[in-house]
Amino acid sequence: MKSTEICRLLGIQYPILQGGMLWIATAELAAAVSNAGALGVISPYAGMDNMGDPVKNLEDQIKKTRQMTSFPFAVNIPLDLKDSGILIDLAIRQAVKIIITAAGSPEMYSEFIKGMGIKVLHLVSSVRQARLAEASGVDIIICEGVEAAAHNGFDELPLFSLIPQIVDEVSLPVIAAGGIVDSRGIVASLALGAAGVQLGTRFVVVEENIAHQNYKQAILEAGDKDTAITARKLLPTRSLKSGFSKQLLELEAHGATAGEIRRFIGYRRARKGQIDGDLEAGELYCGASAGLLKEILPAGQVVKNLVSEYQIIINELL
Ligand SMILES: Cc1cc2nc3c(=O)[nH]c(=O)nc-3n(C[C@H](O)[C@H](O)[C@H](O)COP(=O)(O)O)c2cc1C
Fold first, then answer.
1. How much is the pLDDT for 120?
2. Cα–Cα distances in angstroms (integers) from residue 211 to residues 89, 302, 309, in the given order
3. Residues lining ligand 1, Cβ inside 6 A
4. Mutation probe of ligand 1 site: the residue of 189, 268, 285 with most atoms within 8 A of C-beta
5. Averaged pLDDT of the chain
6. Taking the model in full, what pTM does it have?
7. Which option is the CATH number for 5-210+295-317: 3.30.499.10, 3.90.550.10, 3.90.226.10, 3.20.20.70?
8. Per-residue pLDDT at 267
9. CA atoms of 82 and 69, how far apart (whole Å)
10. What local confidence, expressed as pLDDT, does residue 266 receive?
């Protein structure tokens, strides 16, 4: 597979990132991905008890990851978490080398993180946000299209349109995310000017992921029309169609306000779906390409397949 600027900047063999996943991107998953030559990412709540302490949990996850891999890994910090500043502080004290921020302004911490000699990546979903991230001093931009699982940008821009527009607008390397589950998506993203890819849903359905079997199975059974975007007025979110998301869509169709949507979603629905496996009441984040996912594999095998199938496509194109 092509070695891009991302590989040099992050010290990885392949320009592939496993996406941060708040409750389920654990040390075990990140280490398996990093050991395979891609970039594993850990998340602050991953592996934590429902009422656990995210700061303590993240510290444990960082230490555990180090025991399982000597390759680079990153920490993902959604800036809308209550403790985001403390979590960034912890990651810095733990000498983490790569931090990925999302769901907030890159102006908040990028210069500070960079000043500590740490690579900072920020997730964007529009050209305007990409420009702001560049001006804020981030090293790499992750450009996420509306195909992506979990939280989407308000403008709901598709990845194929977004990548070249962002690439033309900024001079930083750009990583593509959203709906990429196999090497076809990687080749296409690189052709559009991306220097790497980030995959989320593909790394839910792997052996090392602690996600509940019900959730994994529901992803494997999903077809092209089985995900939906909910909470458009509050925080557009792509997940599997389920009892919960159908009820939410109905509320929205009846003109529910952002406050009413927030009250309906309530507390820790994502954990209920992804960890407890409650397919009715839980929130089951899932990307739009789930229909392509047919089996649970070891994470390292996923990376191997992405690399070998990439080469087959390139050979066919030549
Ligand atoms: C279960 C789940 C949880 C996620 N949580 C986060 C998160 O905490 N922070 C973040 O930046 N992105 C999060 N994402 C988005 C992924 O990191 C990634 O960008 C996205 O899944 C890419 O789209 P794909 O799923 O179609 O590959 C999550 C995705 C999933 C599937």
1. 98
2. 27, 17, 26
3. 19-22, 24, 43, 76, 78, 102, 123, 144, 147-150, 177-180, 198-202, 204, 274, 285, 287, 289
4. 285
5. 96
6. 0.97
7. 3.20.20.70
8. 83
9. 29
10. 84
